[in-house]
Write a structure and sequence with these properties.
globular, alpha+beta, 2,3-Dihydroxybiphenyl 1,2-Dioxygenase, domain 1, binds fe (ii) ion, 292 residues, 5 helices, single chain
Length: 292
């Protein structure tokens, strides 16, 4: 396995003021460094787990994929060269903005910026302190969370993440979205997090369907639900439990229109014993639409 985790996610957002409040007061992330039209938010000791980039796209702008060492980054580069996938070396200014020692930049087949890096800055001298009182975000070896991407050309996208970057299939979910319209969601892991990446084979107006942050306790998720009203956030679903990763979570809309999943207790994947399975529903219970 070459990619160790989804280390950071960058969103290009048009309403930065509303996002700032959303991140701090609703999700409970801690504001970090800012500059050059980019603001970092913290979920743990790391200097940055989510970046807000000023712009008009209101979509995911970059995935930061972490490898463990400089040697691992060289291995990834060699594999990309073998597969004739172009990349560029990140410059000094970008390394500073991303708080990493070294990185390379490339794009997935649908044009999403992907940065592969090692050497993230840890600020153990400035301990993480959630402004909304979240006890802890589950990050560490499992990374920042997960993203679900609309991916019209599944064959090329799958080849990029699986063959070039080493993601492994966890399972699939078949979903009937209408009388004559079904899709299969594919869930991929690169560490013990059940899925770091899910691919939905469908066209969409934006690439990101949702991102997920995992909190340490059910109480953290319950308190986040309780903050919805006071924070003026639109709840998209009730609390529910997913069939595949068994995450207990709810969904809410972000100021950019894509969703966030706030969850806890996702099951880990152990490669030695894991068996790929298929599910016919996304949720065991709950996750019912909330009309507002
Ligand atoms: Fe999710």
């Amino acid at each position: 396995m070459s990619i160790a985790s989804l280390g950071y996610i960058g969103f290009e957002v048009s309403d930065i003021g509303t996002w700032q409040s959303y991140m701090e007061n609703f999700l409970g992330l801690m504001r970090g460094a800012e500059g050059n039209g980019c603001e970092a938010y913290r979920m743990d000791d790391r200097a940055a787990r989510i970046f807000l980039l000023h712009g008009e796209r209101d979509d995911v702008a970059v995935l930061g994929l972490e490898v463990q060492t400089a040697t691992a980054l060289e291995t990834v580069k060699a594999n990309l060269e073998k597969k004739k996938i172009a990349y560029t070396q990140g410059d000094a200014a970008l390394k500073i903005r991303r708080h990493v020692v070294d990185l390379i930049c490339l794009q997935d087949p649908a044009g999403l910026d992907v940065e592969i890096y090692y050497g993230a800055t840890e600020l153990t001298n400035q301990p993480f302190n959630s402004p909304a009182g979240v006890s802890r975000f589950c990050t560490g070896d499992q990374g920042a969370g997960h993203v679900v991407l609309a991916s019209p050309d599944m064959d090329r996208i799958r080849a990029f993440y699986v063959e070039a970057l080493g993601f492994s299939l966890s399972d699939t979910i078949g979903m009937k979205l209408g009388p004559d319209f079904s899709i299969t969601l594919e869930f991929y892991h690169c560490n013990q997090r059940h899925h770091t990446l899910a691919l939905a084979g469908m066209p969409a107006s934006r690439r990101l369907h949702h991102f997920m942050v995992e909190m340490a306790t059910l109480d953290d998720v319950g308190f986040a639900l309780d903050r919805i009203g006071a924070c003026g956030v639109r709840q998209k679903t009730t609390l529910g439990k997913h069939t595949n990763d068994q995450m207990i979570s709810f969904y809410a809309e972000t100021p950019s229109g894509f969703d966030v999943e706030v969850g806890y207790a996702g099951i880990p994947v152990h490669d030695e014993s894991w068996r790929v399975t298929h599910h016919e529903a996304a949720s065991m219970w709950g996750h019912k639409p909330v009309s507002t």
